[in-house]
């Protein structure tokens, strides 16, 4: 029986660790024997600019690109990015979102206001939203920089294999001095789902 291709988008702003999250995810899928394509799309990838990464895995993946309405899961590191990329989610897809708000340049300059109630309004559209305070959990793990691994811990519930696979990938990928923090961050995210 062939494994259908699964599509995951990781969205956020530059400096949040979206690229490390996609690297960890891609490595885990390869470890489990899947064909994997990872594509990093940088808008303005310096700190504050929108960044999206596509992760596709299955028996055979021919393209790294995810089209609108094809994402099984969107992992959003920030609420406005969740809203921006929502059209890419399948009707029965899952949105995993940090509740963090990062003001984009138009808000910083006073030309517009950050929208209210982003995640509740997405829920009202019938989307399955898993909202988490990943920043608080990462801080509890020992570093706000582990927010990406917290979100990976939440997503692991929907990706079909044992959490030890994920922890092994985290241990073998992150810098040695950050292993303990990242393990704890993953565990906190995994437990928070």
Give start-end ranges of low-pLDDT stretches.
none
Give the second-level CATH assignment, the architecture.
3-Layer(aba) Sandwich
**CATH superfamily placement:** Pyruvate-ferredoxin oxidoreductase, PFOR, domain III
Q: What's the helix count?
A: 8
How do the strands of the widest beta sheet line up side by side?
2-3-1-4-5-6
CATH class: Alpha Beta
Beta-strand level of the residues, as a percent range?
15-25%
| C-alpha termini separation | 30 Å
> Judging from the principal axes of the Cα atoms, what is the shape?
globular
Structural class by secondary-structure content: alpha/beta
Helix/strand order, N-terminal first: EHEEEHEHHEHHHH
CATH topology title? Pyruvate-ferredoxin Oxidoreductase, domain 3
Structural Rg: 16 Å
- Mean pLDDT comes to 90
Helical percent range? Answer: 25-40%
Work out the number of β strands.
6
Q: Largest sheet, described in full? A: 6 strands, mixed
Question: How many domain modules?
Answer: 1
SSE topology sketch:
Elements: E1 6-13, H1 18-31, E2 35-42, E3 50-58, E4 71-76, H2 79-85, E5 89-98, H3 105-108, H4 118-124, E6 128-132, H5 134-141, H6 147-155, H7 163-173, H8 179-192
Helix pairs in contact: 1-7, 5-6, 5-8, 6-8, 7-8
Task: Give an overview of the whole structure.
- This protein has a single domain, classed as 3-Layer(aba) Sandwich (Pyruvate-ferredoxin Oxidoreductase, domain 3), CATH 3.40.920.
- With 193 residues, the protein is an alpha/beta fold.
- It has a six-stranded mixed beta sheet with strand order 2-3-1-4-5-6, sandwiched between helices.
- It is built from eight helices and six strands.
- The model has no long low-confidence stretch (mean pLDDT 90).
- The longest helix is centred in the N-terminal third of the chain and has 14 residues, at 18-31.
- The chain is globular.
- It is 38% helix and 24% strand.
């Amino acid at each position: 029986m062939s494994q259908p291709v699964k599509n995951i988008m990781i969205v956020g702003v530059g400096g949040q660790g979206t690229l490390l999250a996609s690297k960890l995810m891609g490595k885990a899928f390869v470890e489990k024997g899947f064909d994997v394509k990872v594509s990093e799309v940088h808008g303005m990838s310096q700190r504050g600019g929108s960044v999206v990464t596509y992760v596709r895995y299955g028996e055979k993946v021919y393209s790294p690109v995810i089209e609108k309405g094809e994402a099984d899961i969107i992992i959003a590191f920030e609420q406005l990015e969740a809203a921006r990329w929502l059209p890419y989610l399948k009707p029965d897809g899952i949105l995993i979102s940090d509740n963090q708000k990062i003001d984009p340049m138009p808000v910083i300059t006073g030309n517009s206001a950050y929208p209210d109630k982003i995640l509740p309004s997405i829920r009202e559209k019938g989307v399955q939203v898993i909202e988490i305070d990943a920043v608080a959990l990462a801080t509890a793990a020992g570093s706000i920089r582990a927010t990406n691994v917290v979100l990976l811990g939440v997503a692991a519930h929907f990706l079909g294999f044992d959490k030890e696979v994920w922890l092994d990938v985290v241990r073998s990928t992150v810098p040695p001095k950050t292993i303990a923090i990242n393990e704890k961050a993953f565990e906190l995210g995994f437990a928070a789902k």
